[in-house]
Design brief:
Helices cover 32% and strands 20% of the residues. With 432 residues, the protein is α/β, with parallel strands linked by helices. The strands form 4 sheets. Strands 1, 2, 5, 8, 9, 10, 11, 12, 13, 15, 17 and 18 form a 12-stranded mixed β-sheet that branches. It has a two-stranded antiparallel ribbon with strand order 3-4. It is globular and about 70 Å long. The chain starts with 17 loop residues before the first strand and ends with a strand.
Length: 432
């Protein structure tokens, strides 16, 4: 077959054992695995005042901002920066770090059996790109559509739209790493990252690829995103922003926005063994469910409960064999209650950790970055702790890991994410 189509026409094989061989993280608490884990282990918060732009007009002026991120250290060719939003730049960097961590250099993978899947959010337009156009379209204090039509052609970069398409993260990553196999983008809010992992695993199990580079990227700190979403669900704990994200705590008052990206390399065990790759963990299963009435009646957690049970059944895990749950833990009143109730119903008194307490809500990046915390923790036999959990909430009946990392648990973990629209995803992993 010409081109890359031969990757899709492989005969069906027996289910593949899928392993994790690389991890890349761009987060508010560290760029790269070691800085990221060190912050988790020491209880370091990445919540800080926003200085990406002038935030003085906002009522909430803090979040999980990635400090000192320099895309020029990762993005190639350099000219690609012109058509990359911050989300795409961070996604590219996380993918690059994951490939380096996996030891996958050029020539180590058949390009037609190497694919990419990325989760993404809506990418908002940068204000500076549109400012001159809007100013020209304002005539005597009123917006003029004819003036806009003329200005948009003269002021806007011809490739402007490429900065804001959510499929461009997977596209840039695939081009840079010569991945000619299956390529996909998942855009479904907070569950996008874990769904991308499920899709990538399915590709390998179908025999369509040997290696999949999978990740998620998001920036909820973009000024347009902040204005569009408003601050009704945000924590207003401005006295000490590092204590603002408090998943499952009785005194939580809302979520904290953040930004970041995560990526992992998935391989069939056979391929990893042939090349002598280091195995960081095993992907056991993935499941997704939905409660369609969530928009009208609010999230009950039924979809998450079903997703957890389905993932455990597919992995052959009894509730007692789950070492810990890496929770969505967004720190809002209702969502935490729904999630905690679902976890308790499905798994009983399993230990629960909520990394958003350290770096905030990363949108589509959250699932993969949070899963990275569990991957690194399983390697060390530790469950990272939840920050700011001080007073249990009777309405959140979960066993929250707090005060320091927890040792002595089984070498398995379940990462979960939940959307306000009712979608839920669960991914089960195990130590090697």
């Amino acid at each position: 077959m010409p081109g890359g189509r031969s990757a899709y026409i492989q005969p069906m094989q027996q289910p593949q054992d899928i392993v994790i061989t690389g991890v890349g993280v761009v987060s508010p608490i560290g760029i790269g695995c070691e800085p990221f884990w060190e912050s988790l282990a020491t209880g370091t918060s990445g919540i800080r005042p926003i200085d990406l732009f002038d935030s003085s007009s906002l009522r909430v002026r803090f979040g999980g901002q990635v400090p000192d991120f320099d895309p020029k250290l990762f993005v190639r060719p350099r000219k690609s920066l012109k058509v990359m939003s911050r989300e795409i730049q961070m996604g590219f960097a996380a993918a690059d770090l994951a490939m380096a961590d996996a030891g996958l250099a050029a020539g180590h993978v058949d390009p037609e059996r190497f694919g990419v899947v990325f989760g993404g959010d809506m990418i908002y337009a940068d204000l500076e790109d549109l400012e001159r156009t809007y100013r020209r379209a304002t005539v005597e204090g009123h917006f003029s559509f004819p003036a806009w039509a003329e200005a948009i052609h003269e002021e806007l970069h011809p490739l402007w739209l490429l900065k804001h398409l959510p499929n461009m993260a997977a596209s840039h990553v695939a081009i840079a790493h010569d991945a000619r196999g299956p390529n996909n983008s998942i855009v479904l809010g907070d569950v996008s990252g874990l769904l991308a992992i499920a899709e990538a695993a399915s590709v390998i199990r179908r025999g369509w690829a040997d290696v999949m580079l999978v990740g998620g990227t998001g920036c909820r700190l973009h000024p347009t995103a902040l204005v569009a979403r408003g601050d009704a669900l945000l924590s207003h704990r401005a006295d000490d922003c590092r204590r603002a994200s408090r998943p499952f705590d009785r005194d939580r008052d809302g979520l904290v926005n953040g930004e970041g990206a995560g990526a992992i390399v998935l391989e069939s065990r056979d391929h990893a063994a042939r090349r002598g790759g280091r195995i960081r963990g095993r992907l056991l299963s993935a499941a997704a469910r939905c409660e369609p009435t969530a928009r009208r009646q609010g999230v009950t957690g039924s979809s998450l409960r079903s997703a957890i049970r389905a993932a455990c059944a597919a992995a052959g895990l009894d509730p007692a064999a789950v070492g810990h749950v890496n929770a969505h833990g967004v720190s809002t009143i209702e969502m935490d209650r729904a999630e905690a109730t679902a976890i308790r119903a499905a798994l009983g008194d399993v230990p629960v950790t909520a990394p958003k307490s350290a770096f905030g809500h990363l949108g589509a990046a959250g699932g993969v970055v949070e899963l990275a915390a569990s991957i690194l923790g399983l390697e060390r036999g530790l469950v990272p702790a939840t920050l700011n959990y001080e007073t249990p909430d009777p309405a959140c009946p979960v066993n929250v890991v707090a005060g320091g990392p927890l040792a002595g648990r089984p070498g398995t973990a379940l990462a979960v994410n939940l959307c306000s629209t009712g979608q839920a995803a669960a991914v089960a992993i195990g130590a090697e």
